[in-house]
Structures are given as structure tokens and as C-alpha cells.
Automatic annotation (TrEMBL):
This is Terminase. Pfam families: Phage_term_smal. InterPro entries: Phage_P2_GpM.
Length: 219
């Protein structure tokens, strides 16, 4: 396990490296930080490639992610805006591991900076984020971060089916506690994908909301 001093050192160097000039002016020690984490990522990808189970892959990623915290913190503090495949990969790993809250600061930074997915991915970052979150079936405790992810990505292009799936997931989590908001999310989902399977829920909630308004008016 790394000492706090070692983690602070790597965080500082990662921040300096993203902000430092390239070429002859770059500091070799700083340039080596990205290379170090790129090599570490390569070795970890090799481990993950040998695992067939998605559940086990997520568990392993959860164990490996703390090793990248100094790099992530350093890059986010530098705010250079440069394309960073290491950072985007860690963002995805956090999502795969169920750490949506931990991934969202990277998502916001990557989208603001116009970053793209690493080579081999067909989706853009916004679509990938919502796709991974909804495929992992967010829990009630993750509702707030799901809504934050929807807000972060709303201005970015993606397939209608992906956006619909995210709004449907939000609606399902809100159905019992906030029928009116659930209704709104289901309607948005239906607008983006008429076959997303929410028509029955919309009809049910519409009646439920109407009855609640009638009861309120009669009190």
C-alpha cells in the first residue's frame, strides 16, 4: 500500500505533467508519470482480459482503482483539457465498479474538454456514460447521481435509445416516491423511444396523479 507522502508526490507530478510544455521543455521526471500509469494500466488490462465474468471484472476493477487516485486528482487539478485516454479509462472503470459519484467529476471534465473515447469504442463519452450506468441498473441510493449524469450529458449527442433508457431508469426509481417526476421522465423516455416500454406506466401514473389532485381539491 502506498504511503500518503507517495500518493501526494504522484498527484503533484501528474498535475504538473498535464500542465507542462511538451518537447524539449518538458521535465523528464514529470513526463514519466503518465508513462508509469500507462504501463500500470496495460498490466491491469491484461489481468482483466483473462477474466470472463463481468461481475468478477467489476470486482477486480474496484480493487485496482485506488492505485490511480493520485493520477486522477493530479490531472483534474491541472485542468489542461488535453485528451487523456488513461483518465477516460479510469472513468469507465469507476462506472463499471458502481462508483458513479466518483466517475462524474471525470465525466464533467472530459465533456467540457471535448475528450473522446479511447480507440476501439464506437460510442462517444456521453452515450457511454449513460449506457454503462443504466446497464448496471442503478439503485435507489444512486438516483441522485443518475440524475446528475443525465443533466451532465443532456446537451451532448447520443442515440435516442440510450437517452430513453436513462430517463426510464430514473422514472423507475422515482415511481414510488415522486410519481409526478417519474411521469416526466417516462414521457421523455417515450419521446426518444416509442418502444422503450413505459406506456403502461405513464397511463398508470397519469390516473394516480389525477386522483391525487382531485382528492386535494376536495379537501
Amino acid at each position: 500500500m502506498k504511503s500518503p507522502a507517495r500518493m501526494h508526490f504522484e498527484k503533484t507530478l501528474a498535475a504538473k505533467q498535464t500542465a507542462a510544455p511538451t518537447g524539449a521543455a518538458a521535465v523528464p521526471a514529470e513526463a514519466g508519470i503518465a508513462a508509469k500509469f500507462r504501463a500500470l494500466l496495460g498490466s491491469h488490462k491484461a489481468i482483466l482480459k483473462a477474466i470472463q465474468s463481468k461481475v468478477e471484472k467489476a470486482n477486480v476493477k474496484r480493487e485496482l482503482l485506488p492505485e490511480y487516485e493520485p493520477y486522477v486528482e493530479g490531472v483534474l487539478s491541472a485542468q489542461s483539457g488535453a485528451q487523456d485516454d488513461i483518465l477516460v479509462t479510469i472513468m469507465l472503470w469507476r462506472l463499471d465498479a458502481g462508483d458513479i459519484a466518483g466517475a462524474l467529476p471525470i465525466v464533467a471534465y472530459a465533456l467540457d474538454s471535448g475528450m473522446t473515447m479511447p480507440e476501439g469504442f464506437k460510442s462517444n463519452i456521453a452515450a457511454m456514460v449513460l449506457d454503462v450506468i443504466t446497464d448496471n441498473e442503478p439503485t435507489d441510493e444512486q438516483l441522485d447521481v443518475l440524475l446528475e449524469a443525465i443533466e451532465l450529458t443532456k446537451a451532448h449527442d447520443m442515440p435516442d435509445e440510450v437517452r430513453a433508457k436513462a430517463h426510464k431508469a430514473a422514472g423507475l426509481l422515482l415511481e414510488e416516491t415522486d410519481p409526478a417526476k417519474a411521469f416526466e421522465h417516462f414521457k421523455i423516455a417515450l419521446d426518444f423511444n416509442s418502444k422503450c416500454g413505459v406506456k403502461g406506466r405513464i397511463d398508470k401514473l397519469e390516473k394516480q396523479i389525477a386522483e391525487a389532485e382531485q382528492n386535494k381539491a376536495s379537501d
